[in-house]
Write a structure and sequence with these properties.
33 helices, six-stranded antiparallel beta sheet, single chain, elongated, eight-stranded mixed beta barrel, alpha+beta, disordered N terminus, Beta-Lactamase, 24 strands
Length: 969
């Protein structure tokens, strides 16, 4: 069956089938005519080539072209790209042959194309003449070939199908008319001959091409029931009858039945009558067409006005051609005020370019808009939302648009969407049921809270939502409220699919229709499970805190340390789930269990030692506050090993503080692995016991552990010799020669030397530390220039002990100056003087920090030192401070009288050194004169001491003024 194309919507299935059959029959007839003519040439049957003896035969090439185009047309109407491609190839070959024949006629010479399939040397039937096909036939077949090629293409060349087929029909009809009119078979169109079979075949195939596509205008004329088509169809019989009538008149004249005058009159009368009939027929058709058009327009306008929708017709130029009366109702515009204006003027300015682009696209496409909402400006300046549906009229190119005002609907829809979004995104569960209580909707919050999907509960009775351990009275209350059409509010418990329960505060509210009848019930719930659990936990915690307060009130915190700690452990054991309690104190390195209860493991009871690494970890964690941790049987760290071995599964610990210092922990433990949450819950109680214990036991515990801690630290300094010695030069202020060095200790952990020695003396190891640092200083001084005195600091206690100091100083390689600060307390000055004399004649004495604070002069008077070192507080800024200058002058006078020399400490500028030298201060030391450095570094520095024995080259009893280059004369 032949495919009639794409646009078949306007034809009934019956009409389509009829056109398909006719098209197939005409194509088949063309193939038969061409094939019969070729056979007639081959076997010598004249009637097969001319049909009548006196007519011209169809030429072989024309017959071949007709048959080939018939086959190509059949292939072109078949589905499939291969068949269409083959049709185009066959039709293109026929077109080439027809064009070549036209070229021969135009050239006026035989180029051999007409004899291509029937050479002149071949003898045919004697009645047949193998001449070139007529020019009209060649042109007609060329047009027909173009039509078939375009029909096979179906896309880019579709517009050429109808014109080419019409041209073929005209040429065919013209040839047939000339023969019917009695013209010579050799009727010349540039000397061509027209054959009836060829013209008929071309005409039939042209008609087949035309009716193969219903959208062709000639087909529409034949099928359109409108007035124009009816008038056209009425004229067609007359057009076909005119040649027949003319032929009859001509034959009557040729047979002698009419004289020339009668024939002329008959022809004139017939022509006038025929013309008059045509004019009348045409006028009637035009009048009918006009009346029907007016009636159609009026019917259209009435229909548009009655629909209530806005109907707009926009021309291809974008100008409004028609607007229905509904525009005034919806938008406030009178139709007359809108027609003639550009349609884009009614859209928002910012959308102008987009609307123009959309309009242009619609004009170029057969696809319209469906349900598109656009904002249109109302006559009062406001904006209305109009929903449009548009389609393009292929005939006029105009765009038809039908719109309706959806502003209120849009607002309602937006409101519903916002409400739906709020309900869907709400954290409250929302369930809707019908009047009978069957669930019809559940939001996402319900799905999250209940663990059931909305699809699972829709269709179930709403009472099934509250399945769980409900009090029967609650269900009865809900039933009575709903039966009375009243709201209900309360809590119910719901059983989740995983068998867990949740508590929900529910509000059940009726929704009534306009008649006041309950149409739906809405269930709005808040999950209060966590709130109720927190409330229960809070109440339990309040009770436990009350128990803790009562337990603390029972404690006697004024008793001895050990018994008070034991009482705290006993009260902790009364807490639920506690199997072990202990108070642990931290030393400097190790910890110690002060008291315990519950377990008797020697590693966990009072007196047990906590290893150093475990103590360090516990102390570090306790700095951050209370904590809990779980112990597993395979845990083997030193921190937990005894606890794991004892079966403890979880601990709760709180720091024990003395002020801000962490001095230990209070801890409880359980043997049960299922009480982890219980331990976490008891953490505040443990913290309260720890706070009470810290306030009561902190000072005593700190005092108990302080000595051990300090002694351990000082002992570590001594045993590990984690200190070194640096030396600061003492310089002659007049010559700037180095007159001596002061040994200063530096500790590797950064502890200040004064604090280190204070801690050592407090721990009873002060003399040990002094001896250790002196030994290091003397050993390090071996790298200093030989003979230059060494200034070392000693305490009066070390001087009085004598034995160890003498032992250390026995290995000296240079004179020694012993410094005693004036802050050190001395009860027996005579014993100190004697101890110095016992050390040897080359040992000199210096009093340090003279003038610092409110120091008295008793040290200077009783000890009669060789050197007095002025404190830095007197030296700093002396060049600009008259008060300090006066004090220094007084001390200089004292030194002269007491026959001792002065050393100024802390000189940090040239001006200070110059001022001190001007006041007669012999020696000085400070950063400006030389910073403390190692012996190796100082040994590389130049020394300009003129007398190597300057510090101790003379007896200490007298100091001569002429010996100003020496510290001690």
């Amino acid at each position: 069956m032949i495919d009639l194309g794409m646009d078949q919507a306007s034809l009934s299935p019956r009409s389509l089938r009829a056109l398909q059959r006719i098209s197939s029959i005409l194509a088949g007839a063309t193939i038969v005519i061409g094939t019969a003519a070729i056979a007639g040439w081959l076997v010598g049957i004249p009637l097969a080539t001319s049909w009548l003896p006196w007519l011209s035969p169809v030429r072989p090439n024309a017959a071949l072209i007709a048959a080939a185009l018939g086959v190509a047309f059949v292939l072109a109407t078949r589905p499939g790209s291969r068949a269409r491609l083959l049709a185009q190839v066959v039709a293109a070959g026929a077109l080439a042959l027809a064009v070549a024949t036209v070229a021969e006629w135009l050239a006026g010479r035989d180029l051999g194309f007409d004899n291509l399939f029937w050479p002149a040397s071949m003898e045919g039937p004697s009645e047949l003449a193998s001449e070139r096909m007529s020019l009209g036939s060649a042109i007609g077949f060329a047009c027909l070939a173009v039509a078939v090629v375009a029909r096979a293409d179906g896309l880019h060349l579709a517009r050429f199908v109808e014109p080419a087929a019409v041209m073929t029909s005209l040429f065919s009809a013209f040839g047939l008319v000339t023969i019917v009119m009695g013209a010579d078979p050799e009727f010349a169109v540039v000397g061509s001959r027209v054959s009836v079979p060829g013209a008929t075949a071309a005409g039939l195939l042209a008609v087949a091409v035309l009716i193969s596509r219903p959208e062709h205008r000639l087909v529409q004329v034949l099928l359109d029931p409108g007035p124009a088509a009816r008038s056209t169809r009425g004229i067609l019989p007359a057009v076909a009858g005119f040649p027949i009538a003319a032929f009859l008149v001509l034959k009557a004249y040729e047979s002698g039945a009419m004289t020339p005058a009668v024939a002329a009159v008959a022809a004139s009368i017939f022509g006038v009558a025929y013309a008059a009939w045509l004019l009348a027929r045409g006028a009637h058709g035009v009048g009918e067409l006009v009346r029907e058009a007016v009636a159609a327009r009026e019917a259209r306008d009435r229909f548009f006005d009655l629909t209530g929708d806005i109907v707009v017709i926009v021309g291809p130029d974008g100008v409004i051609r028609y607007v229905s009366a509904a525009a005034q109702t919806a938008l406030g515009y009178a139709p007359a005020s809108v027609v003639g204006r550009a349609y884009a003027d009614f859209f928002p300015q910012e959308e102008h370019d987009r609307r123009v682009a959309t309009f242009t696209r619609l004009l170029r496409s057969d696809e319209g808009h469906r349900h598109v909402e656009r904002r249109i400006r109302h006559a009062d300046g406001s904006w209305r939302w109009i929903e449009w549906a548009t389609n393009r009229d292929p005939g006029s190119g105009a765009l038809y648009a039908v719109g309706r005002d959806v502003t209120e609907l849009r607002e309602q829809r937006d409101g519903r969407e916002r409400l739906a979004a709020v309900i869907e995104q709400s954290n409250e569960t929302v369930v809707l049921s019908d009047a009978a209580g069957t669930v019809v909707y559940a939001n996402s919050a319900f799905e999250r809270a209940s663990g059931r999907s909305a699809a699972e509960v829709v269709g179930l009775p709403a009472r099934a939502l509250g399945r769980g351990p409900q009090e029967p009275s609650i269900l009865m209350e809900i039933g009575r409220a709903m039966a009375a059409g009243e709201a209900w509010q309360g809590e119910w418990t719901e059983l989740r699919p995983d068998n867990s329960t949740r508590t929900e505060m529910v509000r059940i509210t009726p929704i009534r229709d306009a008649a006041g009848t309950v149409s739906n019930w809405v269930y709005v719930g808040n999950d209060v499970t966590d709130h109720r659990a927190a409330q229960a936990a809070f109440e339990r915690e309040v009770q436990e805190r009350a128990d803790v307060v009562a337990a603390l009130a029972r404690l006697d915190l004024s008793g001895p340390l050990d018994s008070t700690a034991a009482d705290i452990c006993g009260e902790l054991m009364a807490l639920p789930g506690v199997d072990y309690a202990a108070v642990v104190a931290f030393g400097r390195r190790q910890g110690e269990v002060i008291a315990s209860a519950g377990l008797v493991d020697p590693d966990l009871t009072a007196g047990a030692i906590v290893p150093a690494d475990a103590t360090h970890r516990l102390r570090t964690r306790a700095e951050h506050g209370p904590w809990t941790y779980v112990l597993t049987p395979n845990l083997r760290r030193a921190t937990h090993d005894p606890l794991v071995a004892a079966g403890i599964r979880m601990l709760a610990c709180a720091p024990l503080r003395n002020g801000t210092d962490v001095i230990g922990i209070v801890r409880i433990g359980t043997l049960r692995a299922d009480l982890n949450e219980e331990m976490i819950r008891l953490l505040p109680a443990v913290s309260e016991f720890a706070a009470a214990a810290g306030g009561a036991l902190g000072p005593a515990l700190a005092a108990r552990t302080a000595d051990a801690t300090v002694r351990a630290k000082v002992r570590a300094w001594i045993d590990g010799e984690t200190f070194s010695t640096v030396f600061q030069p003492i310089v002659d202020l007049s010559s700037r020669d180095i007159a001596g060095y002061e040994a200063l200790s530096r500790f590797e952990d950064g502890t200040r030397p004064d604090l280190a020695f204070a801690e050592a003396h407090a721990a009873g190891l002060g003399l040990d530390l002094e001896i250790a640092t002196l030994r290091t200083a003397l050993r390090s001084a071996l790298d200093l220039p030989a003979g230059i005195p060494l200034d070392v600091n000693v305490s009066p206690a070390l001087l009085l002990e004598g034995v160890r100091l003498a032992e250390v100083l026995s290995g000296r390689d240079r004179p020694i100056v012993l410094e005693i600060t004036e802050h050190d307390r001395i009860d027996d000055y005579g014993a100190v003087r004697h101890a110095i004399q016992e050390l040897g004649p080359d040992i000199r004495l210096a009093v340090d920090d003279a003038g610092a604070g409110a120091a008295n002069m008793i040290h200077l008077v009783e000890l009669r030192p060789d050197l007095v070192k002025l404190d830095i507080s007197l030296v700093r800024g002396i060049n600009i401070d008259p008060t300090r200058q006066a004090l220094v002058v007084g001390l200089r006078h004292f030194a002269t009288t007491a026959r001792c020399r002065l050393v100024a400490e802390g000189i940090e500028s040239s001006a200070e050194a110059t001022t001190l030298a001007a006041f007669g201060i012999e020696y000085g030391q400070g950063f400006w004169l030389g910073r403390p450095a190692s012996a190796a570094a100082l040994a590389e520095m130049p020394a300009t001491v003129t007398r190597p024995g300057g510090l101790a080259s003379r007896p200490r009893a007298r100091v001569q003024d002429s010996d100003s280059a020496s510290l001690i004369a």
